[in-house]
């Protein structure tokens, strides 16, 4: 209580200090007068009386100082003074200040940007009630740890488990909407979900209603729930759409609800939702073999996820024991927190980037520290004089710290501005970043910015401040007159800082090198086909217009004929998925010519479709046999082509040609298909090795199987210019058919390397900045050293030292911290790089090329940095050097 | 410092409080004089020593100050004890007596020897 009161009065006094100063003067005057009166009464002369009184009063100024310290909040006043003083000092060296602030701004800005992204993407809970109770559930076996779930498994899990409030299943789907009311035909990404998906997530429709169990029924009327963005974009915000119908793939769906604007699960691409059992083919509805769905569960309150999933896994094992003999069944189940499931992919890259940014900030702080040490060396005499005049050491340390803090605060403010731009840039340019829509600078990020700014300020200021205030006053005052070997301790401090800087830079360079090499490896991957001048576009032949095989085949053949006639087109073909665009799906197969498989053993191959010209268009080489011809169409379709990986796994010692595969392709019972050709391997995903693949003739025109189409066109010139003419051809056949994903093969490859390229480029730019900072630091220290040692060098040369020797001496002096830092950095890298192993492709964390390159780069740049000052030292004229003394 | 000892702050504030308690409101000059007199002129107080003690006591709420007129018609600032100050005085007196008693016990044999 007393302390509080005292503090309050002091605060008041600080604010009204002028008034209380006058009060004090009045009191002093009154006391003086009383003393003089007394002395007069004692019989002194007036002069003597006043003199005695003044002596007795004590030094007025001293009293006043004591009183001020006592009365006001002296530390606050002193801080204000420090800030004013530091600002004046910094303003006297605007160049230094500006550079230091920019460097800090970059470091702080980069760190804050990444923190913002990490906070919004990885750390912020999902916007659902009790998000910690939401889990994604996958089925698993020995090969696939997180496999999508078969609908039959899902329904059994729902019945068997007790740990979940709700469990829902969904999968991707898509619909063609026709041109209407002046709007273009469009392909809509959609989701099909069990009726309780929204209840499981804990949300309800903002307009209308969610699905009910009655909607999610094979016989139910078709219903749909719109996303807010579709509601806004295509239905002009008009609530009258509720209860009306929309035409999707030619079928009418009644709109029953609209989702909230903020709802973005699983990501913003999904435009509308339809009930699960309406969309999923009847024969798949209860299947344990077709793994097609994503399952989301909400744990009951107080139930641990591990306990709940054990029950599900046990149920799945029962299913496995029961059905594995007749088809592929997964052995167990595994749960992941829903947030982790959504953002897990970018966790490592984001943390790697944040670590790199913080490293950069650290290096920037060390560099600033280094610059300040240099300045403090130059100001040593000033410090000594101030100490001699009575400034306390603490006071000097505080003042230096204030300077670095001021620089960092300036840098921090600029950095925060930079971070708003930076985090926006990150989210708009990093296309694969999940939850990117929710990234914005919030109070947490500002708090983080404050924290690292303070940290950087103290880090940068403390060392120089302590080093500057250390040592005896006398030696500092004397030292300046004879500079030889001066301030050895300060130089060693700077060298230590440099060593740290170089070591950190090496770690960053190694990480950047590894990421970049991995990225180059990815870019260099041979997909197994040509990627030059190839244009692809998707369309989906669904609905009444394409319910018969002839309709599909007619459309495809007419389209190909017209496209081949377009000027510039060299070759054109159709498939369902091009290389590098994903796994898509697989089918089980049996080989009739082989002995029957033991029950429980299953073989799969990814399925593809192709027309006769597809392979030549993409220049996928024929290894044996022949491609499809115009004959393999409609009913005459029992032929297939496989890839080399297929042959390696299933026909290691036989001729595959003429052998048959039984696949459930056209019907549920399966048919035998004769292998008529073997083609080269193509990668379905750029960073994964090829898997067995089989092609069916797309001209069989099977509705469903032949509906998903990618038109592939190879040209002699810039292929993008063909996009519009081809779209016009398609529109002339079917104005209602939407075309999507008009991409060149190169763009498809780029898209799949966008994550690694992003990480690699950013880390590389951080590493480059660090290298620049370290080099500048090296240059600065050695330049300073040369100036310091000019007289010494002069004497050496006067005594007969050769210029080369001087050059070597100085060069080695400068290079020593670089070499030690290099060694430390390499050591640290060896320890650290294994942490990023998961984001490296085809590159060992200890890749010798990268390490050698980093070592060479660092040696070259540090030598270059040291060469200039060393050269200057070697050119010193001994006479001048000695005279300058 | 042969005959005139220096006074340290803690002791001084105790003296100030005691003086105010026995003499009633006093101005700074009167206080200084009074303390010197009571010490039998063995203490010499200048204002630079006294003022910080007064300021501290005032900030702690032990004393309050008010401008008034002195005996010989001079404008002066008068300090008086508050209730907090009275309690503080009692406590500090007790503490002081305890401390001196303890220290006296330690010192008494060596004084004789």
Question: Can you put this structure into words, describing what you see?
Answer:
The complex is a heterodimer of chains A (885) and B (113). Chain A folds into five domains: 2-72, no CATH class; 82-126 and 347-481, no CATH class; 148-329, no CATH class; 491-525 and 750-885, no CATH class; 542-736, no CATH class. Chain A is built from 26 helices and 21 strands. With 885 residues, chain A is of the alpha+beta class. In chain A, the strands form three sheets. In chain A, strands 1, 2, 3, 4, 5, 6, 7, 8, 9 and 10 form a ten-stranded mixed sheet that branches. Chain A has a six-stranded mixed β-barrel with strand order 13-14-19-16-18-17. A four-stranded antiparallel sheet of chain A has the order 12-20-11-21. Chain B has 113 residues and is α+β, with helices and mostly antiparallel strands. Chain B has a single domain (9-112), classed as Orthogonal Bundle (Arc Repressor Mutant, subunit A), CATH 1.10.10.10. Helices cover 62% and strands 14% of the residues of chain B. Chain B has four helices and three strands; from the N terminus they run αβααββα. Chain B has a three-stranded antiparallel sheet with strand order 1-3-2. In chain B, a hairpin with a 5-residue loop joins strand 2 and strand 3. In chain B, helix 1 crosses helix 3 and helix 1 packs across helix 4 (83-112). The longest helix of chain B has 30 residues, at 83-112. In chain B, 27% of the residues are buried. Classes of the chains: A alpha+beta (885), B alpha+beta (113).
Q: So how many helices of chain B?
A: 4
- What is the terminal-to-terminal distance of chain A? 63 Å
Q: Return the CATH class of chain B.
A: Mainly Alpha
Quickly count the domains of chain A.
5
For the residues shown, what is the average pLDDT of chain B? 81
Most extensive interface, residues per chain?
A-B, 25 and 23 residues
Remind me, CATH topology of chain B? Arc Repressor Mutant, subunit A
């Amino acid at each position: 209580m007393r302390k509080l009161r005292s503090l309050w009065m002091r605060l008041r006094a600080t604010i009204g200090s002028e008034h209380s100063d006058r009060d004090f003067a009045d009191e002093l005057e009154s006391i003086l007068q009383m003393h003089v009166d007394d002395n007069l009464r004692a019989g002194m002369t007036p002069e003597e009386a006043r003199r005695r009184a003044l002596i007795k009063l004590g030094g007025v100024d001293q009293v006043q100082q004591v009183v001020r310290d006592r009365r006001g909040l002296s530390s606050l006043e002193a801080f204000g003074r420090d800030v004013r003083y530091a600002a004046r000092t910094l303003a006297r060296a605007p160049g230094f200040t500006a550079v230091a602030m920019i460097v800090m701004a970059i470091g702080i800005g980069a760190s804050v940007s990444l923190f913002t992204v990490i906070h919004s993407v990885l750390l912020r809970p999902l916007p659902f009630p009790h998000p910690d109770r939401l889990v994604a559930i996958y089925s698993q076996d020995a090969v696939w740890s997180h496999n999508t779930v078969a609908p039959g498994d899902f329904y059994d899990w729902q019945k068997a488990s007790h740990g979940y409030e709700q469990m829902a299943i969904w999968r991707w789907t898509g619909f063609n909407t026709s041109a209407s009311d002046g709007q273009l035909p469009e392909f809509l990404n959609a989701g099909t979900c069990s009726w309780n998906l929204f209840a499981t997530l804990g949300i309800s429709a903002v307009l209308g209603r969610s699905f009910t169990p009655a909607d999610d029924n094979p016989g139910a009327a078709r219903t749909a729930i719109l996303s807010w963005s579709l509601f806004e974009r295509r239905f002009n915000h008009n609530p009258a759409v509720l209860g009306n119908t929309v035409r999707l793939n030619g079928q009418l769906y009644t709109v029953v609800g609209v989702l909230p604007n903020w709802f973005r699960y699983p990501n913003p691409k999904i435009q509308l939702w339809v009930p699960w059992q309406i969309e999923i083919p009847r024969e798949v509805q209860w299947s344990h073999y077709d793994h097609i769905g994503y399952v989301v569960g909400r744990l009951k309150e107080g139930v641990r996820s591990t306990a709940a999933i054990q029950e599900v896994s046990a149920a799945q094992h029962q299913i496995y024991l029961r059905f594995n003999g007749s088809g592929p069944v997964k052995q167990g189940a595994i749960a992941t927190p829903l947030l982790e499931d959504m953002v897990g992919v970018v966790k490592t890259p984001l943390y790697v980037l944040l670590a790199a940014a913080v490293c950069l900030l650290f290096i920037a702080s060390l560099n600033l520290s280094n610059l300040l040490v240099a300045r403090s060396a130059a100001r040593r005499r000033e410090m000594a004089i101030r100490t001699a005049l009575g400034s306390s050491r603490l006071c000097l340390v505080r003042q230096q710290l204030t300077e670095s803090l001021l620089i960092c605060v300036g840098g921090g403010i600029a950095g925060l501005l930079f971070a708003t731009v930076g985090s926006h840039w990150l989210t708009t340019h990093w296309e694969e970043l999940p939850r990117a829509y929710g990234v914005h600078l919030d109070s947490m990020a500002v708090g983080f910015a404050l924290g690292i700014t303070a940290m950087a300020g103290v880090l940068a200021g403390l060392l120089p401040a302590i080093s500057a205030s250390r040592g005896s006053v006398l030696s500092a005052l004397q030292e300046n007159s004879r500079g030889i070997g001066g301030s050895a301790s300060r130089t060693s401090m700077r060298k230590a800082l440099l060593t740290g800087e170089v070591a950190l830079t090496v770690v960053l360079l190694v990480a950047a090198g590894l990421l970049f090499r991995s990225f180059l490896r990815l870019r260099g991957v041979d997909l197994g086909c040509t990627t030059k001048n190839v244009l692809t576009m998707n369309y989906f032949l669904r609905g009444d217009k394409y319910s018969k095989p002839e309709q599909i085949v007619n459309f495809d053949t007419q389209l190909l004929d017209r496209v081949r006639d377009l000027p510039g087109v060299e070759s054109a073909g159709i498939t369902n998925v091009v290389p590098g665009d994903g796994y898509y799906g697989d089918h089980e197969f049996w080989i009739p010519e082989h002995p029957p498989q033991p029950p429980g053993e299953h073989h799969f191959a990814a399925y593809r479709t192709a027309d006769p010209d597809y392979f030549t268009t993409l220049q996928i080489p024929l290894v044996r046999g022949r491609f499809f011809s115009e004959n393999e169409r409609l009913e005459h379709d029992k032929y297939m082509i496989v890839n080399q990986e297929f042959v390696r796994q299933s026909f290691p010692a036989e001729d595959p040609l003429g052998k048959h595969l039984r696949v459930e392709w056209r019907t549920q019972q399966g048919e035998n298909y004769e292998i008529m050709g073997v083609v080269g391997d193509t990668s379905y995903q750029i960073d994964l090795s090829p898997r067995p693949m089989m092609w069916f003739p797309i001209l069989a025109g099977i509705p469903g199987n032949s509906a998903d189409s990618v038109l592939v066109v190879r040209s002699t010139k810039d292929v993008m210019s063909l996009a519009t003419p081809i779209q016009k051809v398609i529109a002339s056949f079917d104005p209602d058919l939407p075309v999507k994903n008009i991409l060149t093969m190169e763009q498809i490859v780029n898209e799949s390397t966008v994550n690694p390229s992003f990480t690699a480029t950013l880390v590389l730019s951080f590493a480059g900045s660090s290298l620049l900072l370290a080099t500048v630091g090296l240059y600065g220290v050695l330049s300073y050293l040369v100036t310091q040692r000019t007289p010494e060098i002069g004497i050496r040369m006067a005594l007969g030292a050769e210029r080369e020797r001087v050059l070597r001496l100085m060069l080695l002096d400068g290079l020593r911290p670089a070499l030690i830092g290099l060694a430390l950095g390499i050591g640290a890298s060896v320890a650290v790089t294994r942490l990023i192993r998961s984001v490296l492709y085809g590159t060992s964390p200890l890749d010798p090329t990268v390490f050698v390159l980093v070592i060479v780069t660092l040696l070259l740049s540090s030598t270059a940095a040291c060469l200039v000052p060393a050269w200057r030292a070697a050119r010193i004229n001994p006479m001048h050097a000695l005279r300058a003394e | 410092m042969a005959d005139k000892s220096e006074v340290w702050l803690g002791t001084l504030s105790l003296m100030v409080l005691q003086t105010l308690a026995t003499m009633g409101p006093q101005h700074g000059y009167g206080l200084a004089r009074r303390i010197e007199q009571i010490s039998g002129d063995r203490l010499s107080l200048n204002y630079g020593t006294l003022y910080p003690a007064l300021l501290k006591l005032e900030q702690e709420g032990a004393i309050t100050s008010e401008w008034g007129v002195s005996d010989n018609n001079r404008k002066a600032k008068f300090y008086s004890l508050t209730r907090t100050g009275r309690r503080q005085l009692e406590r500090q007196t007790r503490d002081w007596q305890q401390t001196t008693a303890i220290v006296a016990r330690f010192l008494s044999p060596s004084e004789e020897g």
